[in-house]
Amino acid sequence: MSEADTPLRPVSDQAHDDMVLPFAVEPLDVRGRVVRLGPAIDEILTRHAYPPAIARLVGEAAALTVLLGAALKSEGRLQLQTRSDGVVDMIVVDFDAPDRLRAFARFDEARLAETAPGAELLGHGHLALTIEQGSDVARYQGVVALDGQGLEEAAHQYFRQSEQIPTFVRLAVAESLTGAATNWRAGGLMLQFLPASVERQRRADLAPGDAPDGAPIPEVLDDDAWAEAKALAGTLEDHELVDPTLSSERLLYRLFHERGVKVFAPQAVRAACRCSDERIAAMLRNFTQQERDDMVGDNGKIGVTCEFCSTYREFDPADFKAE
Ligand SMILES: [Zn+2]
């Protein structure tokens, strides 16, 4: 169904997990997506058995990756990767269009134990977003410095620098208690200002958000529509993004009903790795014979555990001997 054909209908109260809902607030020239992750993020975080602070960070990274990756064509792939000197020195999240999500983090357990709750875990380094849109389109990579600002702010900087689109991102992660079990949930909202006139977009982009206190008030202000959209989105609370009983449509209606919000076809997301026996065998073939010999364990096999999904596989070293 084309956008113009979308009929008006009541706001759905049906909450769907593991779903991205694209939307537009046309009077404000704003488009966006809201993502709600339930079983998919719970499967990823529970399988890794991360401490809660690490799980929260990986959950945020996953929600952000899905928000960005949902824009890809059917065969595209988006990877978010952080490398830094913090407690968590690496996070990798892959989104394979149209719906596959996987993630892992590497962190220092001893340093985590000494870190105060709520402290910033990424430290200094960089966040890279790599986008592959299929074989005929060049790979694209955008990089932002990590400087203790967290993933939401890093995402804002990425859009300012790499894409020059005024963007608002909000991420939330929570552990929800259902009976005796706890389940991880994550949510995110992304909003972009896309006016027909590029002039209006540039104007909004110039506002120096991080001017020091006491700096003269800049003459260039956000476009009124974008300022209003950000103010409305700014009323969103974390618990709303992770509330399993609040539908994404209801959430958007709360934020934007005064202006009217239009939703498009939702996109499903699932936890799925791309590892396979064939891929790992191919990777082993790329090592030298000496390297493979060094990998052989006490049982005479080469054991490989996938970092993303923790699947353990065993290979017979004889299968890789040069003919
Ligand atoms: Zn895997």
Strand-and-helix sequence, N→C? Answer: EEHHEEEHEEHEEHHHHEEEHHEE
Computed Rg: 22 Å
Strand content: 25-35%
Query: What are the distinct ligands in this entry?
Result: zinc ion
Précis, in short:
By secondary structure, the protein is an alpha+beta fold.
Account of the protein in words:
- 30% of the residues lie in helices and 30% in strands.
- A hairpin with a 4-residue loop joins strand 1 and strand 2.
- Strands 1, 2, 8, 9, 10 and 11 form a six-stranded antiparallel sheet that branches. Strands 7-6-3-4-5-12 form a six-stranded mixed sheet. Strands 13-14 form a two-stranded antiparallel sheet.
- It contains ten helices and 14 strands.
- The chain has 323 residues and is of the alpha+beta class.
- The chain folds into two domains: 245 residues, Hsp33 domain, CATH 3.55.30.10; 44 residues, HSP33 redox switch-like (CBS domain Like).
- The site of zinc ion (ZN) has 6 residues, from loops.
- The site of zinc ion has 6 residues, from loops.
Secondary-structure blueprint of this entry?
Blueprint (H helix, E strand, L loop, with lengths): L18 E7 L4 E8 L1 H10 L3 H18 L7 E8 L3 E9 L3 E8 L1 H5 L10 E9 L7 E8 L2 H14 L3 E12 L2 E13 L4 H9 L17 H10 L4 H5 L5 H9 L5 E2 L3 E2 L1 E2 L5 H9 L3 H7 L6 E4 L6 E4 L8
Parallel strand pairs: 5-12
Antiparallel strand pairs: 1-2, 1-10, 1-11, 2-9, 3-4, 3-6, 4-5, 6-7, 8-9, 13-14
Bound molecules: zinc ion.
